[in-house]
Amino acid sequence: MKAPKLSVPDTFKHVTVRAEGDTDETFNRWTNRDVLTVPSYQRNYTTFAFAGWWVAGGTNATAWSTGSSNIANGLTAGEACGAILVGGFLSGLVAFLCGEPGVSDLVNDRGTTTNNRKVLYHLGFPMMSRSTFGMYGSYFVIMMKTFVNIIFCGIQCYWGGLAARIVLSCIFPSFAFMENTLPASAAINTPQLIGFVIYIIIFTGLLFIHPSKLQPLLLVSFVGISCTFIGLFAYCIGANGGSASLIASSKVIGSTERAFRFLQAISGVAGGWTGSAIRQSDWTRFAKTKRAPVINQILGAPISITVASVFGVFATSAAQNMYGVTLWNPIELMQYILTNNYTPAARAGCFFGGLGFFLSQISVNLVQNSVAVGMDLSSMAPRYIDVTRGSLTMVIIGTVINPWRFVNSPGTFITVLSSFGMFIAPLAGINAADFWVVRRLKWRVPDLYIGNKSSIYWYNYGLNWRAFLAWVLIVWVSFPGFLWAVGGAPNVALAWQRIFQVTWFVGFLGGFLVYSTICFFNSPPGGKMSLERHAPFPYESDFIEGGEHVTLGQNLDIDESGSVDMSAAKEKLARESVTED
Predict the structure, then answer these.
(1) Average pLDDT, whole number, for the chain?
(2) Quick one: residue 96, left, alpha or beta (phi over 0 = left, psi -120 to 50 = alpha)?
(3) CATH of 39-433, one of 3.40.50.300, 2.60.40.2470, 1.10.4160.10, 3.90.780.10
(4) Where are its TM segments located (predicted)?
(5) Dihedral over Cα of 233, 237, 240, 243: its sign
């Protein structure tokens, strides 16, 4: 007797993700339009758009304060800026390695394009996770990243609310000196809460714009944020008489300790931006050309982060000379200026500065948190979640957790979040090794949407034990130092502390090397590193049909059970090849 076909109950069909022309078979637990190959009409991100992406991600309050915090740790201003430059370059390198699936050419064993035809994936981070960790294993990677992004989205919303408060304070004196009507237990005052609500309303409205249409906002951000940083820097230097004695650390350290802290600073910067770099393919898949994102990954990341940090060091130094206090966060600096110098000139300057940082917090939340989480959640429940619904889910959770409590009452929890790079860096290294070394840039794309043993990415019950073994082996090395950092193990040996303090080097490089080594001796299905080479996969016979340039992933017939009709896919490729410009 034939088993009954599972279907969505009629009660819930109205909440499924459905586009015009779609049928029930178009979507299942593994696929919807947001996790398939990006269609050609949505690939419109230019080099300038990616420049805006990196300016939004690199020139923010975090980058502004990075230089000063490293100086406080014992480095000179020059050493701190040098470490930031190197760390920014490394984060850009991770972005390049992890962003390649969005624009990668499919090559054959001879190093040329398949049948001399260029094949571009235009696939994102969830597919990279499926390929590396398995169909179910990708859930682990996605949930780990999503948890951190939800918390940091809430915190970025809070900082955006403070920027909104500055703008309103500059316009309305009554708002600037508004009395607090909230109890102390709220951990937030009335003006801050009003600014937070305004930010949430505006930010939520932008979530309904598809990522492929955010290019104008990124370009506006590029200009607005750059002008804001230059303006705040110029104001602080000018108000201080045109100079600033650079902040110097009171710590006296030896050359060996200084060298280690230089490495620690590099690790901190690289780790801080690896969380967004690992998801770079979520954005490169919208690239108009293959080269559009590359120059900004290699140069945009280090330049934007370093320039923001240099401005922060000089502006913080000037503010310290003027006010006698050290204010590393630029939003707090502007609030302090307004509180102590509520003049027309200060109000005008802080208005534009607050507006710029409001735009910055909008942009950084979009590019580093909401859109990425939306894409990732859509891969976990694609029948019911698309990018917009996933992003809205993140904002709702990020709001109800009262993010200001993490900022205003810092403790162990925020320390844990700040240390989460030790868990993310190995994931980035393992993903990069799987795509570049183990598979040599080759994916069997239809198998990324098959949830059974016929997929080479099913591994063992949907889990790739090689990836999980490599991740565990690397994380445990840093774990004693992690416990020491959060206060759970005060008597940890100095060596373990040191390992944790340079956890990016241990995590990314260790994950890359350990996973590559495991796969050399036990190659996964589709791997190209075993001593006995696997037979070439039938890309040419199954998927390449006609046309100079073909895009994989849009021509799949996948039924409810998770199987792909290969003959139908081949016929569709013959009829509907997508030509790359």
Answers:
(1) 81
(2) alpha
(3) 1.10.4160.10
(4) 133-152, 158-178, 190-210, 216-237, 298-325, 345-367, 387-407, 413-437, 458-479, 499-521
(5) positive
